[in-house]
Amino acid sequence: MTAIVQIDDVKKVYDGGFEALKGVTLNIEEGEILALLGPNGAGKTTLISTICGITQATSGTIRVGGHDVVTQYRAARSLVGLVPQEVNLEPFEKVWNTVRLSRGLFGKAKDDALIEKILRQLSLWDKKDTPIRALSGGMKRRVLIAKALSHEPRVLFLDEPTAGVDVELRRDMWEIVAKLKADGVTIILTTHYIEEAEAIADRIGVINKGQLLLVEDKDALMTRMGQKQLRIELQERISEIPQSLGEFKLELAEDGDSLIYSYDTRAERTGIAKLMAAMSAAGLVLRDLRTSQSSLEDIFVGLVQETGDAA
């Protein structure tokens, strides 16, 4: 694939010396969904604002579709659609006029057929003559997406698009994003909802304290960094782990009726067979076995904690 967004060693330092971005380098491939995860203040919104030309980098370069976002601003910005966190819409204007105006602001020729297609795609067609103030929060979010798509961008930035939206509407938004990708739109999503990234992203980026910690294929990341846990439920409770099982680095559950064994899914040998034999020799009788895989949330929290400890 071809990189449609190229970010090279971008830094952003505000007055007073606060470093919001610390040398971020990233290529975003055409047609992919990239989820950018990070806690509040990590630099997600600053990075998006810098790519979209809302704020200017202190140093480094950004290109969208080969156009420098500073020296070729108009060409770069015409390729970008932005759905901000804040719902800032004219409350008394109707949906149709709101979306059509956005297209005109980019100097695009009138195209009512396209506006109709976008509104239908976002399930807004039956609301086209409704004033914005009469819409629900979820519908207002859809209007923001419609506005961002009205000038036919090739790259769409969704900055916390489902913040404050209920679970059902959130899943609707995931379906919308999947349809946009099918239409060839490149999507960069920032989110606090880990399950959102896990459900729809092709690649995951983790940012914290202005530093991009990693960008990796979602499935590869979970395979590489994920661990499996084997929970061994015992027939009888124990107060401590027998010394003979020390090499297995087991954890004893609080209630004393289970042992927890963590192992690397990539290892040639898991050590489970050896553990079972050692448990039998120690006189422990198992009642049941259960396995669980580390989630993306576990991986994310671990990475952020590591960064915090290193600071």
Automatic annotation (TrEMBL):
The keyword Transport applies. Residues 5-234 form the ABC transporter domain. SUPFAM superfamilies: P-loop containing nucleoside triphosphate hydrolases (SSF52540). Signal peptide: none annotated. GO terms for molecular function: ATP binding; ATP hydrolysis activity. It comes from the Bacteria. The keyword Chloroplast does not apply. Keywords: ATP-binding, Nucleotide-binding, Transport. Gene3D superfamilies: P-loop containing nucleotide triphosphate hydrolases. Pfam families: ABC_tran. InterPro entries: AAA+_ATPase, ABC_transporter-like_ATP-bd, ABC_transporter-like_CS, ABC_transporter_ATP-binding, P-loop_NTPase. PANTHER family: ABC TRANSPORTER ATP-BINDING PROTEIN. This is ABC-2 type transport system ATP-binding protein.
